[in-house]
Amino acid sequence: MKSNSLFLVLCTLLGTTTACQSPQITYRDIAVDAPFDMPTIREVVFPDREFSIADYGAVADGRTSCTDAFAAAIEACNRAGGGHVVVPAGEWSTGPIHLRSNVDLHLAEGSVVRFTDDPADYLPAVMTSWEGLECYNYSPLVYAFECENIAITGSGTLSPRMETWRTWFGRPQPHLEALKQLYTQASTDVPVEERQMAVGDNHLRPHLIHLNRCRNILLDGFKIRESPFWTIHVYLCDGGIARNLDVRAHGHNNDGIDLEMTRNFLVEDCTFDQGDDAVVIKAGRNRDAWRLAAPCENIVVRNCRIVKGHTLLGVGSEISGGIRNIYLHDCEVASSVLRVFFIKTNHRRGGFIENIWMDSVRVGNALRMFEIDTDVLYQWKDLVPTYETAITRIENIRMNRVECDTTRAMIDIKGDARLPIRNVDLRNLHAKAVTEFVEQAEQVEGLRTENIVYDQLITAE
């Protein structure tokens, strides 16, 4: 990568950036194997232009605010037609980083981006979402809205300060009242601009990375250490790659990567060590998602390692826009998860879940190897009413070649009599020890099991 100070001076003298945008963004095509028609993934390749935040006033002392320097470097890179905004080695303190089109935020070896934890730094509020409901909330720590060709690369680290956010992990009454307000607004078609949640004691925590309505995304090589909320949230996006990431976040709601109403995405060679689910597929909540009508589809996850988490592959419970064509294969759970493959919904969601595959997975310990639960409501069960009943259609689910050391149950399916689950194919599942039961299934049609094997069944007398 090359410095572009002279390049920018020339552009300024010319009074335009039009003549100063060569070389341009290009793409590398990646063919991805899947049991469905998976579109070719376009990997964005950035021009060899470099914009160091140090050249825009950033100081690597871990205390001086570098927020303005990040913004200036990103602006210059975008105006020049694209390139790499480089974070050199050192510790850089900053508030929110807002990406722009054609910008790669490159975290050099030895760099640590230390986000502040003063909520005031993350105002004004921006358009985001909270657990499947759109709203205006505190800015995510890294945010992009309606951008294309954006990236975070390099071997550096994103590491937020967590003192304030940890005090927001709980759900005191003001927080629950804020959730009730947001849920009611979304259920009664209140415009998103009026759903202002970054006020008072609402304490809706920001995402670490939230990419909203973007195209052509590359997340490659960097480390994450802790997060206020969901860690990587790819929302209403089209096309991208998450590769070689090292993610560790053990706070409340610290999912690893959430792909929500997103299509044509590859996740590969990542490590996730989470306080919640590791890889999560979502599609919005109830009426808000029906309005957006954007299924989450064409997702491949391969060669990933999960240290700990609530699930390896979680589908839902926000699935109202529909989920289809998901393929996870050749992954490993090094320690434990609560569930290896978990599909969850409830009678308010509607939508559909279809054509989901898991193949060739090795697991340490789990509570459940395979589970579908159609009555998952969490804190919402008694907090808000059912405005509309809409049952989720679930069909064509496949799990094959999964090895597990110990599990309480191998197969646990709880369907809904109003619309039974259809066509579930489970083959070649092996557990060394089962401590509760092997299989129970309710309200499912077309359940096929083959070679479901365990070495020991250890149950209480």
Helix and strand layout, with pairings?
Elements: H1 5-14, E1 26-30, E2 41-45, E3 50-52, H2 67-79, E4 83-87, E5 90-94, E6 97-98, E7 103-107, E8 111-115, E9 126-130, E10 133-137, E11 142-145, E12 148-154, E13 157-158, H3 163-167, H4 173-187, E14 209-212, E15 215-220, E16 223-225, E17 232-235, E18 238-243, E19 246-249, E20 257-260, E21 263-268, E22 271-274, E23 279-282, H5 286-292, E24 296-302, E25 305-315, E26 323-344, E27 352-373, H6 380-383, E28 393-414, E29 421-442, E30 444-457
Parallel strand pairs: 3-4, 4-7, 5-8, 6-11, 7-12, 8-13, 11-14, 12-15, 13-16, 14-17, 15-18, 16-19, 17-20, 18-21, 19-22, 20-23, 21-24, 22-25, 23-25, 24-26, 25-26, 26-27, 27-28, 28-29, 29-30
Antiparallel strand pairs: 1-2, 9-10
User: Mean pLDDT, rounded to whole units?
Assistant: 95
Which of globular, elongated, flat, extended, rod-shaped describes the shape? globular
What's the β-strand tally?
30
The number of distinct helices, counting runs of at least 4 residues, comes to 6
Q: Tell me the β content.
A: over 45%
Characterize the largest beta sheet: strand count, sense, and whether it forms a barrel: 26 strands, parallel
* Rg for CA atoms: 23 Å
**Secondary structural class:** mainly beta
N-end to C-end Cα span: 67 Å
Low-confidence stretches: 5-21
Q: Roughly what percent helix?
A: 10-25%
